[in-house]
Amino acid sequence: MTKGMLGTVRKNGAPIRSRRAPAFRNPKTELEAAIQRFVDLYDFAPIAYVSFDRAGRIEEANLAATELLGDPRDLLIGRPFAFYVGDLDLFLRHLLYCRTSQQQVETELELKPRKGERIPALLCSTPITSTTRNGALLYQTAIMNLTDRKRAEEALRAKEAELEAIINRTPFMLTRCSRDLRYRFVSRAYAEMLGRTPEEIAGKPIVEIMGEEGLKTISPHIERVLKGHTVEYETEVSFRGVGAPWLHSVYTPDRDAKGKVVGWFASITNIARRKSAELALQESKELLEARVRERTRELDAANIELKDEIERRKGLEGEILAVSDREQQRLGQELHDGICQHLTAVAFMARSVALRLKNHRVIEVSDIEKIAQLVNEAATDMRNLSRALHQSDVDAAKLTGALQDLVDREIWRVPCRLEVKPSFHIEDDTAAAQLYRIAREAVINANKHAQAREIVVTL
């Protein structure tokens, strides 16, 4: 490349480099063709290229460099490159590295174009031998505009900061583990559960944090996730110095670009409170079931007792009905055998007296007295029957008096008496009424049919 082959033209007011056509060209010269291709590639490359010497003066620049630095080529050549650098010390260190190294040197710095804002850039300088300066050492430098990359990096950092904030603020505990059973990442919630910081856990072996017992608990789930399965489970997992909290965990495979499983992601929730509530609920449920069973047994026993009481009362009602029927029969029999006979006798004697009066015969005084006696006896029997009927409704307080009145009646042919022991006591009115009826029937039957010498009613 020679300066005679390069020139400067202006297009739309902006200086650009163009190739000056030679007066003549021999197409057979391969060297000239190669040089021409290099010139074209260099001039119109999308990346800015400059060449500067050991002192940092610009020797050559392409079109992209003139646009980036904001000056035409004729102003750039011969000017120190430091004129366009924001940090002079950084550029001087770059020059020093270029002088002491025979390899490519890269440095990030800011450029100061003649117009516009500063531009973050990457200088990639490679030592070359000049063909026009008697083999002097130059540094071919590619200038990479890092504006877009810096913006992308800034956006990436913002996204990473946002993601980190989300991860650290979420109540879920997140971890990322490698296939060799090491923590690659842990969220702040996970570290706080263990009383540590995320930096203390990241990179550590899982067994160092959990211990042998805890690792043994989750090993079956690790084996499944490393085979490519998503795993979800709940269990108590022990940690060294922490205990064994109840955890709900979801493991998903972590794959590389080729789809190979290189580890797993874990989303973990501490469910100790839920398990405690479930345990309390289960205990309450069991207690309620036990009380229901106990209450059911009590109800069954009460039902059996109620059935027995109903049957007993039915039996008592039947007995009462039978006693009532027998009492009615007895009353009917007494009316027939006693009062009716008295009244019949009175009727006969009255008829006899009436006939004597009709025939003007003498009436015996004894006959009138007999009639009066029969009438009095009939009245007495009626009073006793009425008293017996009236005494059918006896309560507990009147039982002793009613029985005493029963044995004291004058109608009994056999002597009757009542014996009441001091310990006798009754409160049930229904039972007292039934006892009175039973005693009365027993006395009546004994008086008529037992041929006893004495009747004793004992309480």
Q: What does this protein structure show overall?
A:
The protein is an alpha+beta fold and 459 residues long. It folds into three domains: 3-149, PAS domain (Beta-Lactamase, 2-Layer Sandwich); 170-270, 2-Layer Sandwich (Beta-Lactamase); 325-458, no CATH class. It has helices spanning 30-43, 63-69, 73-76, 88-100, 147-169, 188-193, 198-201, 206-226, 272-358, 365-390, 399-407, 429-450, and strands at 6-11, 14-19, 48-52, 58-61, 105-111, 119-129, 137-145, 173-178, 183-186, 231-236, 246-255, 261-270, 416-419, 455-458. It has a five-stranded antiparallel β-sheet with strand order 4-3-7-6-5. A hairpin with a 2-residue loop joins strand 1 and strand 2 (14-19). It is rod-shaped, with a radius of gyration of 65 Å.
